[in-house]
Design brief:
Blueprint: H1 2-12, H2 16-31, H3 36-51, H4 55-58, H5 62-68, H6 72-85, H7 90-107, H8 113-125, H9 131-146, H10 153-169, H11 173-191, H12 196-211, H13 215-232
Helix pairs in contact: 2-3, 3-5, 3-6, 6-7, 7-8, 8-9, 8-10, 9-10, 10-11, 11-12, 12-13
Length: about 230
């Protein structure tokens, strides 16, 4: 009975996609395709489709979304859209993260968790040529995550891992090791002692130890990571 009632309720909901599409069609007809209000309607349709995860249907409206989105709600959609695009179109994902970041910096407190999440995702996406920006973004993200103990261990661990790698490239071995060890602890707490995330953190720390002449100290970490990997198969 509950399922039937739920289905009946859903059937009573308006078809928002149809409403958005009709609004866009009306404005295209009365104002023209390039009119400001038409562009806003195209943006709204794109954000609606992307907001429910229908990214392929939203793709035709991506330019309008990137040029006119300016709300906190729109920034959330852009952030999630960028996550979905990271593996297939990193350039477009970067544009989305940067716009989401600009909006969130204007609309959210400086240590807000969601703002920090966008900073971290962008830092992880950028390449080595942007290491200075990556470090700045990761430091800001970690500062925010540290203000919310118990809520963001996984993301804190990712930020520590990234900062450890960046410090290592600068030759700051003690700083890198400190961050990588902290990453291991945080990811163990967030994901478990036998998680793939923990294995990756162990491998990163072991790699640093090996490269700095401490292969014997690295070996137990490598072996533990290998056991985790085997257990996950």
């Amino acid at each position: 009975m509950i399922r039937v009632a739920l289905m009946a309720l859903l059937l009573q909901q308006p078809d928002f996609e149809a409403l958005y599409r009709q609004a866009l069609a009306d404005r295209e007809k009365s104002l023209g395709q390039n009119a400001a209000k038409t562009v806003e309607s195209a943006r709204d349709l794109g954000l609606f489709l992307a907001g429910r995860g229908d990214y392929s249907a939203a793709l035709p409206y991506i330019d309008q979304a990137l040029t006119t989105t300016n709300t906190a709600e729109g920034a959330t959609v852009l952030h999630n859209w960028a996550v979905a695009l990271e593996q297939t179109n990193a350039t477009l994902a970067e544009r989305m993260y940067r716009l989401a970041l600009r909006i969130r910096e204007k609309t959210l407190p400086s240590t807000d968790i969601e703002l920090a999440g966008t900073r971290l995702n962008l830092a992880e996406l950028l390449t080595e040529r942007d290491n200075r920006e990556r470090e700045s973004l990761a430091v800001l993200a970690l500062t925010a995550f540290d203000r919310k103990p118990g809520l963001a261990e996984g993301r804190s661990g990712r930020a520590c891992g990234l900062l450890g790698a960046l410090l290592a490239t600068k030759g700051d071995v003690p700083g890198a090791e400190r961050m990588l060890r902290r990453a291991v602890g945080l990811l163990e707490k967030a994901h478990g002692l036998k998680s793939p995330e923990t294995a990756s953190a162990l491998e990163d720390l072991a790699d640093l130890l090996t490269q700095t002449g401490r292969a014997s100290a690295a070996r137990p970490l490598v072996e533990r990571a290998e056991r985790i990997r085997r257990g996950a198969r």
